[in-house]
Automatic annotation (TrEMBL):
Official protein name in the record: dTDP-4-dehydrorhamnose reductase
Family: Belongs to the dTDP-4-dehydrorhamnose reductase family.
Functional note: Catalyzes the reduction of dTDP-6-deoxy-L-lyxo-4-hexulose to yield dTDP-L-rhamnose.
Pathway(s) where this gene product acts: Carbohydrate biosynthesis; dTDP-L-rhamnose biosynthesis
Cofactor(s) in the UniProt record: Mg(2+)
Matches recorded under Pfam families: RmlD_sub_bind (PF04321)
Upper classification of the organism: Bacteria, Pseudomonadati, Pseudomonadota, Gammaproteobacteria, Oceanospirillales
Cofactor-binding details, from the entry: Binds 1 Mg(2+) ion per monomer.
Length: 296
């Protein structure tokens, strides 16, 4: 199976590249930008085009949101013309006001923010004009590297002694970029073999948690690992923010459909954070060893 991935520096694109390198049944072509022209699709003839999400669209500049939406629509038109499946990953932040119960796939977001509504219109166009699509709604992505790699940013800030502020009253499902990459390739392999299970799917972790609790747990696990290595590092603090005083805003995605259709189980974020912290520590060891060898 051959996939075309856009936005080479995106944390999800890097995760997809790592996952493809572990397999012998998947070939990736990764483009630096967010453009897939008919000519490019004709040259590569991928089995699917994958567009990573615009992360944190609530805080993104309106112009950036509009540019992303327009680029996705142009990709959809090119895919339609070339008869190539389109996979568009989107942030759970489109559910701006959340919901008291886990959010099913058939629930179309109805945000108040005009920029977010622009992304909804793009999704409406895809559903109306091109059936061979997957719209994959994701929880907040975390990874060690790549653009907007949340965990990597947290570790840098904490080890530099900086303060991290996080909402204590926003509940969501942190989602490992590596886990999403593994799931997406598995889903597309099934589609490539004739599953034809197009539509919208939710793909997030199984453990709802507040942003503050997630960041605090990362700090605790980081401190434990550094102490175990004998390192004396004064980590930055974590400050709780509260914006929803009446009741917490719950943005929890129900991922039952992706399990029922594709057999994809969600990975607990605690396990993924632990694994990534182990990887981060190993890279830290390698970096220190390299510095020592250079200083000799």
């Amino acid at each position: 199976m051959k996939l075309l991935i856009l936005e080479a520096g995106h944390c999800l694109s890097l995760a997809l590249a790592r996952e493809a390198n572990r397999r012998s049944d998947t070939e990736l072509t990764i483009e630096p930008g967010l453009t897939a022209t008919p000519r490019l699709l004709e040259e590569i003839r991928p089995d699917a085009l994958v567009i990573p999400p615009l992360l944190r669209p609530i805080t993104a500049e309106p112009a950036a949101v509009t540019a992303h939406a327009e680029a996705v629509e142009a990709c959809m038109e090119a895919c339609h013309e070339a008869e190539i499946p389109l996979v568009w990953c989107v942030s759970d932040q489109l559910y701006e006001d959340g919901l008291d119960v886990p959010i099913d796939e058939h629930v179309i977001p109805e945000p108040r923010d005009e920029s977010l509504r622009r992304l909804i219109r793009t999704g409406d166009r895809i559903r109306a004009e091109y059936p061979r699509h997957l719209i994959v709604r994701l929880g907040p992505l975390f990874a060690l590297d790549g653009s907007q790699a949340w965990l990597g940013e947290l570790l840098d800030t904490l080890t530099d002694g900086g303060e991290v502020r996080a909402e204590s009253d926003v509940i969501f499902c942190p989602t490992s970029a590596d886990a999403v990459a593994m799931a997406l390739i598995g889903m597309l392999q099934q589609q490539h073999c004739g599953a034809e299970s197009w539509g919208s799917y939710h793909l997030a972790g199984p453990e709802p948690v507040s942003a503050y609790t997630f960041v605090s747990m990362v700090r605790t696990q980081l401190a434990t690992r550094l102490e175990g290595r004998g390192e004396q590092v004064t980590l930055g603090s974590v400050k709780a923010l509260s914006h929803h005083h009446d009741q917490p805003l719950r943005r929890v995605l129900n991922c039952r459909r992706v399990l029922d259709v594709f057999g994809v189980h969600q990975k607990p974020w605690r396990l993924e954070v632990g694994r990534m912290l182990d990887t981060w520590c190993m890279a830290r060891d390698d970096g220190e060893a390299q510095e020592e060898s250079m200083s000799r």
